[in-house]
Amino acid sequence: MRPSALWILCISSSLLFGIGCTKEDSGESSPTSGPRTPAPVQSLSSFRTSCNTVFQGQEENPISAKSATRGSVTVLGPNLVSLSSKKRTRLVKLHGLDVPFQTDKQTRARTLLSDLAAEGDAYFYPAEPDCSVVLDDGREGMIGALFSASGKSFSETLLKRGLGQPTTDLCRGSLLSSCYRALAEEALPTPTPTPEIPVPQGPSKPAGFILWKPVSDSDGRLAVHSAPYGTTIVVKGEKGRNAGPGNGYGSLARFSRSGCGYGRNVKVELRQSDGSSFQFGDKDFAIIPDGCKRWTISEKGNVAINRK
Fold first, then answer.
1. Residue range of the domain that includes 218
2. pTM of the full structure
3. In a domain, 12, yes or no
């Protein structure tokens, strides 16, 4: 294509007077032009979530970015990060979430949180002004919500990937629990570990009169099966929630902590449907030597390791 007379005149003028020329756009990109510089990301003004965000004891959706504390995030675990702002560094536990009990989910949750943290400074909203929790190692952490630099909720991203473990947390966690559980149920399928108890071949037969499972398949907390129907299990004074029959047993009691949380030499009582205490031999209770391990208890109170 021959250059236009106007273009030739412009080039001549630039040589004489130092003026710049702009070529007419032909609709074709120049083969020698470099890559375009992307436009800078605009600052976010608010965050909207599937569930609400609890901030200073109140539910908000959307929530203003101006209300947040901004800082860089260092991931310390599947539900624990360090947030460093201009004023201080604090530990943060995600509101309404517990740690998944499966090791593979813990690893993948930590990787996902690291990806969110890598986006840049995060936005933190404490659930309540003085809402904190004592961690397993004795340190104190704040409880609240975190959003990534691009506006993704750390908690809801974990839940939607099947890597979050909902719980009714402190600091008005009941406001989130039902919605978080719904998100977890809708999560994309993820690989799960082999079930602790295989599908029985033929009639189901309990492994013992009582089965102590320190980590249940559903929520990672203590589950205690007992042979009779309609019984109540009491562990160290805590009454279990009866969830009905299962795995060949008449009753299943669920508890607030994992088996390890009850320590060693754990007192276990079984109360029958009429309110009377079941007698294990000459005692009305049995003793679990180590709450972290899986045990069976016979009708006479004999305790044995269960390796299934």
1. 210-305
2. 0.52
3. no
